[in-house]
């Protein structure tokens, strides 16, 4: 973000396929526990016994989601099935996975109460996100909205000189529709959305932005852009001296401000307002102190040149990505975000989190792994379904979970129990 | 970086415990395959059969590293053993893991030929890093040097006004030795190295930097800083109106320029020079073209506000961190880096990579997991050994692997086979 | 930059009013001194006598540009004439002004040989830019191209909640044409070009981009946006709880990456190739050494978190802005740039400079001052002329001068005479 | 900032030469108008007549500061006297200059009520800063404290390889005292304070930080570093392949985060608390609304990748620098700052501004110009005085003025009269 007018109109176009804007905006409103009682909590949260584990597994499987691979009941896959995902395979790295929830999400795509798997080895993390999830749910849930959805590939062209580079850039920009048609021959699910051109001396960068359907889409945009470049080289009025399929303007797995401003993946905006009593009882602090903390930490982040300023979004993103078969290297751009906490004039706590670069998918890539598929199914976010945008749904859940985690960590820093929690949960017994 | 004089003197002090600087610098020089023949390559790299997998497993186990957990021969652990690492446990997420190497590393701490496990679901990644590892090894190996080693915790204090804040900051700075003693009562392995103070109106941020031994150390610095803060609150000449154990100036799991400039974790500098014929035969391109690409991609990164500019360091870091029980959320800061490629006057390719924030550990945290321990043992980097700095060794290997990966991806972008490789290896058969 | 497709099409539309792209691109090509001899150099450059000063003044006035105010022959203006430019007036600050040139510019708008006034108190600066100007002119001149031209104003709206904020943002985006019509009632010369929307929780930022004709345009965009906001408040389907005419997303006088990526003012791209013998004779160094310096300094800039990476662009911008009545506070964003130097395969020196945010105008603001008007007239860039884009012309000259200055400073750092020059010219005799 | 412990101890050392910390901190406290009545306001602020101008001039001259050059009563200087400040001189650029004040500053160095000259052509600017100055003075004045004071020069060395580079960096770091002695042979007023080393492959950057006395000091650090480099080249155990006096890690006239974190020039921290009634009567808005604006604008700045986040600091810095003979190109780094506004629990408005990079001097450079000298004398900041730190005093005044300007602009954005003010004052009658 900010969204360009074209991006915004594209967002509106996509959203209004699902209903009128007024109707959709109503989906974002809080739903109280009184009117819509939530399902039960994950059982026996502070119990590390095998028995408690079994009870939680049973809890999941009774929802209709068998998890033989997570539990180790199923064996390792045939290595041949891993072609396309790994080379020189020797075995499976294991990461312990816990379950939090339910968390109530009031999104356009994710609308309900969700249990969420988190894979991590940082003791305290799961407990803290669970605490946050309970709190936001009792406050009516997290409003969440995916806006822009796009992934870039940015080939670079070395031209003979600036004059030719300018002609080339103008020509390329004028041929957008042609490139869109070419891209459509390489993908059923993706679509070329936009093209930006950057002229720097005799260098031209073309930045192609694609909607990638329910896939995260890095491979899709590579292959589509390859096809476009072949056409460019054939048709261009001026011949490049050299060209490269990617010239580092796509923000791919990078911490760049471009990716913050322009969206890489999915841009999600969330909010929740916590009534004062929930803050006091659930976090043992006050909205005023949390707002004071936010000011101090936001200024601290800004003074240290942080791209986006948040608490520990990276923890939630990493745990979600590991569990759900997302590309872990994309934690780099996906964990950039802006958290905002303010004390309202009524004395409650307003909380918002924006994640501009959620590189998520529910098909392809690591989602083909057996445990990842089980994790996605727990959230009803697996695969691609007619008329449903599964990836957008998953993105809204991710952002809601991260907002819950932001609230929980700031609460513990304000109540002064951050270190105590890590002493209790972050070290082996 | 840049290192302060005090940091530099600390680095020199630590290094010269291992030998004279001249002696150590000699360890950084390339060792040719003629003089020191490398061990054999990982067997049957492009074969996804169970038989090939078994042969690779046997290859590892014959080195003396049994891997029953990676291979699934051992069952899941007792949930009780996971206390301190996870809450609300339901099972184990699995991530396929491949083996590359050997890669020759000429570091102060890592000095030899290493096989390296990488956990990923991005097809092509392992093959590409393997290609890079072979190339740099044939060029005599990667020179690698850990310089600064430190982890921060940054409490914040809200003072009554600027005058009091200034007095408080001056008082705290003058009591560094006292704080160092307090920290030493909470840890055997860590040590308070430095203290920075940031005054912003009535806010004071104190940034404590610790050496954390062979642990990544996030918990250690939290608990030590808690003890220091308790002493501060007891002894301070002016009482804060509020305080927080962390006020967002530590760069913890953030993409900040502070963490780039100041080192969070370990700062590693690497280089290798590839003879022209290796570039031509191994990468099917030329040093000139790779240098030309570097200019275009570095300017592209800079123009998009990238913190550090590299190729795909995040891929290598994420795959290493997942396999080796590192904190995946720290991919955020650990994958920031600067890659440099230049054509030398002799027509060879000079390659350097600096990773300023490698948050790695070989004890504690996720390294307690069974598969992580197996992966660390494959690299002879597990645990903590008398007189050896295992984490520094691991850091040097990580950076060398990432440099190999940088060379491989730039090579494929220059040779024009980047998309083809992903078409071949990045999709299921 | 990068330019969006809409921006690019707007650039193409504007440019092709002046001629075909092929025709225009031909204007960017170097013109050799043999084919088109340049006018004479500024007389007696290293002479500080009153006599030499008089001769230079005569040189200017013989071109048809009387400069009574610069020379002090004319008295101070009537204070009443300064209303609109200053309050609480006590007198005139004086800044010494030198003349360089000619510099040959091969731009679309600026096409010719120009003498350029620079106001500064940094001894050496004028001499160094003059040296650069002579060199680039002997190499055929600087190619220069204005691409994007726009100035932003970014009002902010506090909405009741995210749901309303989303509806508001969608509504605003859909009413662009209406806002454009409203803007046109407040200005004859400006035009609303684009609208971006940024949604962050219950906050909506609307970023309006205007073409501001030959004015720098900060006031114009303020007044137009005020009118648009009045309409928004009257027509909006959801009422903001508060709103502000500017909410810090316009990059106004700020060092932001947004302004680097999005263009604030005019985006100019330039290049020149210096034959090896000119580098050797004129700068006493080699293309190879200058390219080597560029690599080291560019990496240095990147590692220190520089927005854009250049040598001393701020010196040229500040001296031009002070002399020519531009807003000196805009040096902040206008001096952000990217310089690139490379050694070509033929052994010459390729040089490019991109300035993405030149906030310049030739009418209004400080250009009304008598000395500023004289300075602009020396460059034939004063006022607004039918069918001519004077500001774009001025922007191309500014960027060309800055490129000349980049070459000169890098040359002196490579030849090792940087300190000596400052010892000779930077201290009073 | 953050200050290293060594920097902090240096600050404490310098400050305590002036008195105990407690004594100094008492100087920062507000002084009410009741206890210490302020001197009269600048006369007839909204009157552009020659008569009103004359009255203001008389007002200044009756303080004992004749201003013949500002008023044009004195002629232009002999060009020969400008050697060292300009080459190819043709005349004097004039910038209209207004006077604001008094502004009460409660600083360690600047302690009193000051009238401040501002040179600008942006109508409204002087009036707005004047309004802010009156407000902060009525609130007891601006607390202001210079902490770090240093200017960098950063030579770069290309070494044969990483091993040699490491030895070189270690050697250089260990020879700090020697370099300090060498520097002291080139300057009476400056002093080498610190040395940082940055190792990147075979490149070594050495960053020398100097205290430059009352000079801004760019030339001083250049000449001292030249002497140090000559010694390095003579004594180094390993010979560089090439070296450059500056390799772009000093932040010189650049918008870099390094310069934000590390201080370039003087780092000044300020604050003032405005009672609610002053906000309501003086700015026609409320502390709550100004705090709300601050949140929105700070998040807006952060989301656009701003280095530091402020309102219009660049306006104040540019106007002060132009009037007072500072290097206008240094507006780039000097205008980076962080503004913070919060509503206190008592309902008042807390305001803080930090400027980390004020590149100011009261001797040398442009301060030799006649009008600049008059402007500095109006603030009693001219020259260098025994036992007084004139530049630190000037820096504290600059920051106080900028804080006043921040309050005024935010007030007008909150009261909704920002555009109206520019309509009234920003356009010619």
Structure overview:
The structure is a homotetramer of 429-residue chains. Chain A is α+β, with helices and mostly antiparallel strands and 429 residues long. The first copy, chain A, is 42% helix and 21% strand. Chain A contains 16 helices and ten strands. Chain A has helices spanning 5-16, 21-27, 50-62, 68-71, 125-138, 162-174, 176-184, 218-235, 257-262, 276-283, 287-303, 313-323, 331-334, 370-378, 390-415, 418-425, and strands spanning 89-107, 111-119, 142-153, 156-158, 191-200, 203-211, 242-244, 265-274, 338-343, 349-358. In chain A, strands 1, 2, 3, 4, 5, 6, 7, 8, 9 and 10 form a ten-stranded mixed beta sheet that branches. Chain A is globular and about 70 Å long. The two termini of chain A are 45 Å apart. At the A-B interface, helix 3, helix 4, strand 1, helix 5 and helix 8 of A face helix 3, helix 4, strand 1, helix 5 and helix 8 of B. Strand 1 of chain C pairs antiparallel with strand 1 of chain D.
What's this, in brief?
The structure is a homotetramer of 429-residue chains. Chain A is α+β, with helices and mostly antiparallel strands.
């Amino acid at each position: 973000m900010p969204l360009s007018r074209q991006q915004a109109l594209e967002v509106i176009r996509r959203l209004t396929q699902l209903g009128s804007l007024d109707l959709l905006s109503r989906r974002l409103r809080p739903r109280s526990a009184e009117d819509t009682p939530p399902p039960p909590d994950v059982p026996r949260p502070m119990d590390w016994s095998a028995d408690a584990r079994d009870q939680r597994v049973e809890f999941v499987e009774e929802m209709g989601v068998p998890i033989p691979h997570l539990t180790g009941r199923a064996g390792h896959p045939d290595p041949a099935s891993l072609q396309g995902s790994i080379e020189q395979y020797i075995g499976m790295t294991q990461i312990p996975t816990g379950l939090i929830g339910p968390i109530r999400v009031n999104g356009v795509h994710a609308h309900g109460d969700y249990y969420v798997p988190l894979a991590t080895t940082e003791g305290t993390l799961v407990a803290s996100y669970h605490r946050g999830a309970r709190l936001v749910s009792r406050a009516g849930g997290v409003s969440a909205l995916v806006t822009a959805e796009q992934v870039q590939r940015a080939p670079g062209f070395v031209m003979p000189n600036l004059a030719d580079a300018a002609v080339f850039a103008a020509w390329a920009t004028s041929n957008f529709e042609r490139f869109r048609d070419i891209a459509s021959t390489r993908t059923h699910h993706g679509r070329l959305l936009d093209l930006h051109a950057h002229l720097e001396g005799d260098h031209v960068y073309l930045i192609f932005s694609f909607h990638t359907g329910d896939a995260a889409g890095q491979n899709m945009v590579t292959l589509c852009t390859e096809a476009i470049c072949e056409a460019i080289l054939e048709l261009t009025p001026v011949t490049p001296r050299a060209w490269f399929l990617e010239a580092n303007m796509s923000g791919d797995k990078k911490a760049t401000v471009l990716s913050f401003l322009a969206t890489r993946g999915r841009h999600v905006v969330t909010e929740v307002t916590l009534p004062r009593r929930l803050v006091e009882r659930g976090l043992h602090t006050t909205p005023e102190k949390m707002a004071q903390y936010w000011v101090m930490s936001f200024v601290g982040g800004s003074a240290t040149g942080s791209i986006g300023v948040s608490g520990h979004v990276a923890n939630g993103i990493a745990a979600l990505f590991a569990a759900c078969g997302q590309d872990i290297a994309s934690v780099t751009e996906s964990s950039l975000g802006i958290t905002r906490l303010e004390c309202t004039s009524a004395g409650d706590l307003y909380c918002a989190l924006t994640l501009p670069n959620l590189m998520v998918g529910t098909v392809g890539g690591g989602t083909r792994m057996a445990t990842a598929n089980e994790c996605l199914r727990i959230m009803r976010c697996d695969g691609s379904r007619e008329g449903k945008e599964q990836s957008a749904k998953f993105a809204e859940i991710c952002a809601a979970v991260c907002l819950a985690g932001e609230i929980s960590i700031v609460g513990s820093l304000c109540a002064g129990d951050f270190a105590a929690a890590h002493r209790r949960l972050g070290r082996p017994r």
